[in-house]
């Protein structure tokens, strides 16, 4: 398995008319790295759903609610968001096992060749 993040290279993906994922916002007021992170099971695994991703769970800390911040930049510079993207980057560059579980689930692919461009 390798990681092919659909939120990377957005411009290139648009030009090729291929799939891309961009930031989203949940209906309870949180910034999301993509719409896939909006699933209840990813956000609140304590509710007993099947998925668990500590990185996504951390993005739903009350302090990260959009209404509790002055800007989107302030949210993106939080420890929780930096940790999320560091794990995503490491999963992409080194081994998928380092990536957040959310990203492994949706953007992990078998038998594909990673582009080096
Ligand atoms: S699941 Fe992860 S890697 Fe895939 S688009 Fe969403 S944030 Fe990016």
The parts where pLDDT drops under 50 for at least 5 residues are none
- Sketch the topology as an H/E string, one letter per element: EHEEHHHHHE
Gross morphology: globular
Oligomer: single chain
Indicate how many domains the architecture comprises. 1
Given helix and strand content, the structural type is mainly alpha
The amount of beta strand, in percent, is 5-15%
Number of strands: 4
Secondary structure: helix percent = 25-40%
Nearest-angstrom radius of gyration?
14 Å
State the distance separating the first and last CA atoms.
Answer: 19 Å
Number of helices: 6
- Mean pLDDT comes to 85
Q: Which small-molecule ligands are present, each listed once?
A: iron/sulfur cluster
- The largest sheet has its strands arranged as 1-4
Largest sheet: 2 strands, antiparallel
Structure commentary:
The mean pLDDT is 85. A hairpin with a 5-residue loop joins strand 2 (24-25) and strand 3. 36% of the residues lie in helices and 7% in strands. The protein has helices spanning 10-15, 40-43, 54-58, 72-76, 79-93, 101-107, and strands spanning 2-3, 24-25, 31-32, 108-109. The chain has one domain (2-109). It is mainly alpha-helical. The chain binds iron/sulfur cluster (SF4).
List keywords for this structure.
117 residues; mainly alpha; binds iron/sulfur cluster
How would you sum up this structure in a few lines?
This protein has 117 residues and is mainly alpha-helical. The protein has helices at residues 10-15, 40-43, 54-58, 72-76, 79-93, 101-107, and strands at 2-3, 24-25, 31-32, 108-109. It has one domain.
């Amino acid at each position: 398995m390798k990681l092919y993040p659909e939120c990377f290279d957005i411009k290139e993906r648009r030009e090729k008319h291929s799939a891309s994922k961009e930031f989203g916002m949940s209906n309870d007021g949180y910034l999301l790295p993509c719409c896939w992170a909006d699933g209840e099971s990813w956000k609140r695994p304590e509710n007993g759903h099947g998925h668990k991703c500590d990185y996504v769970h951390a993005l739903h800390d009350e302090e990260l609610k959009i209404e509790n911040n002055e800007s989107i930049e302030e949210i993106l510079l939080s420890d929780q968001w930096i940790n999320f993207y560091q794990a995503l980057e490491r999963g992409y560059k080194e081994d998928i096992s380092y990536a957040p579980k959310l990203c492994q689930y949706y953007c992990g692919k078998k038998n594909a060749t990673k582009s080096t461009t």
